[in-house]
Amino acid sequence: MHKYIGRNDIILMASILAVSVLTMILLRVFTDKGMTAAVYVDGAEKGRYPLTEDINVDIDGYGGSHNTLSISGGKAYMSDASCPDKLCMHQGKVYKGGQTIVCLPNRVIIKIEGENDSGYDAITR
Predict the structure, then answer these.
(1) Would residue 15 count as lying in a domain?
(2) Across 23-40, average pLDDT
(3) Can you give the pTM of this predicted structure?
(4) With contact defined as beta carbons under 8 Å apart, do 76 and 94 qualify?
(5) Residue-range definition of the domain harbouring residue 79
């Protein structure tokens, strides 16, 4: 018994590929570009920094801990942290509205806020 790819298999694969490409394009077009990086320590806002300026911000975290937020080329990232696992430093660069960097041991959150950021994830009736 020979297995082969039929016409319907090709149509299915082409449809899945087309939907995937269309989804990627729509996400890129309609994703809100970030404007500011808001810094929160233990739930309290500590500052807002524009993504248009290249700066390094020292953040005093919870219990004497320390983080350094770097903004360069319109992207924000954690360049230094006193936490033991340093996972926040490996979260990469963020630049789109709604993206975050979280350092749980130091209780530091960096949230990228975009042009149309209303503060709500969703509104229901």
Answers:
(1) no
(2) 84
(3) 0.69
(4) yes
(5) 34-114
